[in-house]
Specification:
disordered N terminus; globular; 19 helices; mainly alpha; 0% strand
């Protein structure tokens, strides 16, 4: 009888955890003004199997797929908001993104190796920390209803360093595979071929779905559900084929925008479906972190957080004036690029799904991830408020 009770209790753990996280997020946001996703992350970490022992990752592949679908919906909207024409008209924004990502990679690598980290581990840390999580940025932006130069810049800068981060990480993983197997073909499959195929699939969806919707007509009514189903299918296909759902869905959103399919304001976040999956995504991401690894990697993790902040802040500040904004807003832009957690966790989980695990080597990343899972969205929120891009009632 106790075994029956315990097995049923285990099955109910995730539903109850998600409800509790949602309630904590709603009340916490109302009472403190903090971003909901920071509270979701805190709940997920506290309830994790390695902390309070409530959230097991049995059936890991199914949970990872759901997390990738949630991230895919956010990435589609994220890609949809990227304006390639703006980058062409102001190339300094693109250059800022490339330079801040490159400086972050270099600075993190130097500090990590100086602290005695093996070269391959330092390269992996540097590749992952150069990115900014699109999920963290977009949810804070939508929650705060922010609009302005800083808001648009952090979206475009995050897209640039996200793509650079995935590309660099895949190349390093390919090098690791080659080093361990001696197979150049297997290394290529784990890096460049994965990147190219993922982008191609996203582009294909971005071309075909708008054509289908135009044949159906009444895009304002049908587009949201159609795009949601398309994202779910695209994530499932890339997940099953062991490709990159991150690049595929980001490319899909980018292509959809430039195929001139319009999403109205009421369709952002994919409605209740997007809100539900967002709770699951941030709870899941934080629940993968283990307290022991966070403690063991805390010293190096804090040092790398400081270096990452310094790199991003210095580039966005120094290039602010020449790219068309005040230096103060350049500082706010760098500060707002703090979130990293969900991107890093799902990239690592996807790699583990391929049979490659770096969990033991990247303890410093666990400490960084927990800190920026909770603090990162708060810094983004405050930066947008200080930049005066949040409606007055939200900034009080």
């Amino acid at each position: 009888m106790f075994e029956f009770f315990n097995s049923n209790l285990a099955e109910l753990a995730w539903p109850f955890a998600l409800v509790f996280a949602w309630l904590a997020g709603e009340f916490g946001h109302r009472w403190t003004g903090l971003p909901r996703i920071s509270i979701y992350g805190l709940v997920g970490f506290l309830l994790a199997n390695s902390q309070l022992g409530m959230l097991s990752h049995d059936g890991h592949s199914a949970i990872l797929l759901l997390a990738n679908i949630a991230f895919g919906l956010i990435l589609f909207e994220f890609g949809y908001r990227i304006n390639i024409r703006w980058l062409r008209n102001n190339p300094w924004i693109g250059l800022t993104g490339v330079l801040e990502a490159t400086l972050t990679f270099s600075a993190v690598y130097v500090v990590a190796t100086w602290c005695g980290t093996p070269i391959l581990t330092a390269l992996l840390l540097a590749a992952l920390t150069m990115s900014t999580s699109p999920a963290g940025l977009l949810r804070v932006i939508n929650e705060q209803r922010s609009a302005g130069q800083v808001t648009e810049r952090i979206l475009h800068l995050a897209a640039i360093n996200c793509v650079m981060g995935v590309f660099t990480f895949k190349v390093i993983v390919g090098f690791w595979v080659f080093q361990n197997t001696g197979s150049l073909l297997q290394a290529s499959v784990n890096s460049l071929l994965v990147l190219i195929t993922s982008i191609a699939m996203g582009a294909l969806f971005g071309v075909l779905l708008p054509l289908i919707l135009r044949q159906l007509g009444n895009l304002g009514q049908d587009a949201t559900v159609a795009f949601a189903f398309a994202v779910i299918l695209l994530v499932a296909l890339t997940h099953a084929a062991k490709l990159s759902p991150i690049l595929a869905t980001l490319t899909f959103g980018l292509m959809a925008r430039h195929r001139r399919i319009t999403l109205s304001r009421t369709q952002r976040n994919f409605g209740p479906l997007g809100d539900l999956l967002t709770v699951m995504l941030f709870v899941y991401a934080a629940s993968t972190l283990e307290w022991q690894k966070i403690i063991s990697g805390a010293g190096l993790g804090l040092a790398l957080v400081a270096v990452r902040f310094a790199a991003k802040l210095s580039v966005t500040s120094l290039l602010a004036h020449i790219s068309g904004i005040q230096t103060r807003k350049g500082v706010m832009t760098g500060l707002a690029l703090a979130p990293i957690s969900v991107f890093v966790i799902l990239t690592l989980e996807q790699t583990r799904y391929l049979g490659i695990s770096f969990a033991d080597e990247l303890t410093a990343l666990a400490a960084m991830t927990l800190l920026l899972e909770i603090v990162g969205p708060i810094l983004t929120q405050r930066a947008l408020i200080w930049a005066k891009e949040v409606p007055e009632q939200e900034g009080k």
